[in-house]
Design brief:
Blueprint: H1 2-19, H2 25-31, E1 34-42, E2 46-51, E3 54-59, E4 76-81, E5 91-93, E6 96-103
Parallel strand pairs: 3-5
Antiparallel strand pairs: 1-2, 1-4, 2-3, 4-6
Amino acid sequence: MKKLIALVLALVCVLGMVGCNNRSMNYIVSNEPSITGIIKETNDNSILIENEDGEYWVSLNVENKDSMTNFSVGDEVVVYYDGNIAESYPMQINTVYAITLKTPADRTENDNS
């Protein structure tokens, strides 16, 4: 009987943790570490951003599906992540919660108007 109660309690805890993983964009922006940078390169799975501290490959496998994942070179973005940065060159941010556009690239250079 005690084993059954322990099993039920364990299942309730696991299911409770799964339900808590749906964090809103407002929660992420208010509570998670962030880094700001200018996009230097884009590809299907990641973006290369640069700021005064160096260059970072940022994963586009973003937890919050309301996050932007389609960017242009020159856009200034804010990346919200788990606080871990792989110390490689360029550095890598693999666990990304959200990415927001801070300043779009100046697209008037290519306008023919």
